[in-house]
Amino acid sequence: MKEVLSVENMRKSDAYTIENGISSKELMSRAAIGIYKSVAWYGKIAVVCGKGNNAGDGYALAEILKKEGFDVTLIILDKNLTPTSRIFYDACIALDIVEILYDSSVELFGYDIVVDCIFGTGFKGKAQGVFEEAILKINSSNAYVVSADINSGLCGDSGMTSLAVKSDLTVSIGSYKSGHFLGMAKDHIKRLVNCDIGIRPIYKPYQLIEAEDCKAVFPKRDNFSNKGTYGYATLIGGSCEYSGAVKLANLALSTLKTGAGVVKLASARSLFDSVAPYLLESTFYPLSHEDGSIVFNKEEIDGALKGVKAVAIGMGIGDQSESYQIIKYILENYSLPIIIDADGLNSISVKDPSILKSTECTVILTPHPKEFERLSGVAVADVLKDPIRYAKEFAKKYGVIILLKGSTTVITDGVDVILSSSGCAGMATAGSGDVLSGIILGICAQNPDKEKMLLNTAVGAYINGVAGENAEKDIGSVGMLSSDTVKYIPKVIKNIL
């Protein structure tokens, strides 16, 4: 996994590094060298410098470019320099690098490469005045845009913005920051690389999951094995109001395609005729219902869970009172992984989230921001501004694993944080969350060990996202369906293993 830092962790780690013998001048020089080595430079180059040490990175880079014989111009938005930035600015002046003090008449058309060194990772709020103007001009310049450390205007922690530079390449300095992945970051960063300049984090970093990390959750498959070797799993969901029989079948199929041995789809008996034609490899387990919605029956739930290694509940289940009773019963009487999504989450929100605290089950909750608002009482707008913080707080308070959905998914048990940046715009379609729950269920059925649940959940998010990316490449983002993601699950796993 790759290390990802909060802005505060990066700031304090940077200060600690300086206090222990590496000067800020040396670190700024290393940053500039890293940016220089990351780009195939050509033509006319504009380095747009704003405030603080991010501007200093630009001056240090301009010095290198000039010495290497490139045609470089400084576009300066603010002449209030930090002491370290002043060193490199003075070096640029000594080399007779052309400098232009920005005003509204300055244009960026005609430059082949524009380097964004306006704001750093500590930026918050909204770009205004000359900074706003410069960002808009960078975005309309038709140049190849390189952002130093982070795209100016993006929040370094949340990736949210009202206006930010859109880059072809962003060169992160020191370590990746959470704002490179969360929120709107993917819509602003076309390509992202990191430049290690020798700063080690002083606090525990977040982790970004990669393909190599996924191998650990898939047990070696021996010839001397059978379907029971890889786990029985149960899905409890569906109602007459949940119209997608195919979605229910895809939910079950995603669990099988992830490697579970057997999947039982436990749903309202009235849905059998509509679901059965699509449920080719899974087993339908009928449950009592009233007006098409599942009702709690202890004996039936025990039958549905007999011999299973993991359970998922809530997808389209409907009636909040009955689904809450089912979830409460499972939490009080079983000790297996339980993935709760959709209507299951809403039922807990309405009734009593405290039931999550006293259970032998490993509880995995998979809310999107609005569902998380209902669970936690934190407004969506605030969640988007600080998703890691709120997810960690909730997970720690209730002793659960939270998978908070987004353009980059946050997975946490309240102590450790894993980010999964896989996924694409084409997955913004009905049923994508169901497929995700099915994938996580399939992984948990094969690996019911409590110690692996955080990784299981993160791997599920990663596989779901990569499968969606593969589907989008073939189909396109507009016409893509969640069932298209399901088709690519085996290929993703094959490539991982």
Question: Can you characterise this structure?
Answer:
- This protein is of the alpha/beta class.
- It contains 17 helices and 21 strands.
- It has helices spanning 7-19, 24-37, 52-67, 83-94, 129-139, 245-257, 272-275, 298-305, 320-333, 342-350, 369-376, 380-385, 387-398, 432-446, 453-475, 482-487, 489-496, and strands spanning 2-5, 44-49, 71-76, 98-101, 113-117, 144-148, 169-173, 176-177, 192-195, 206-208, 232-236, 262-268, 283-287, 289-290, 293-294, 310-313, 337-340, 362-365, 401-404, 409-412, 417-420.
- The strands form 3 sheets. It has a 12-stranded mixed sheet with strand order 8-1-10-21-20-19-18-17-16-11-12-13, sandwiched between helices. A 7-stranded parallel sheet has the order 4-3-2-5-6-7-9, sandwiched between helices.
- Helix 9 (320-333) links the parallel strand 16 (310-313) and strand 17.
- The mean pLDDT is 94.
The strand order across the widest sheet is 8-1-10-21-20-19-18-17-16-11-12-13
* Text of the CATH class of the largest domain: Alpha Beta
- Give the averaged pLDDT, no decimals: 94
Q: What's the Cα radius of gyration?
A: 26 Å
How many helices in DSSP terms?
17
Structural class: alpha/beta
- Spans of at least 5 consecutive residues whose pLDDT stays below 50 are none
CATH topology of the largest domain: UDP-N-acetylmuramoyl-L-alanine:D-glutamate ligase
Principal-axis shape equals elongated
Counted beta strands? 21
Helix percentage range: 25-40%
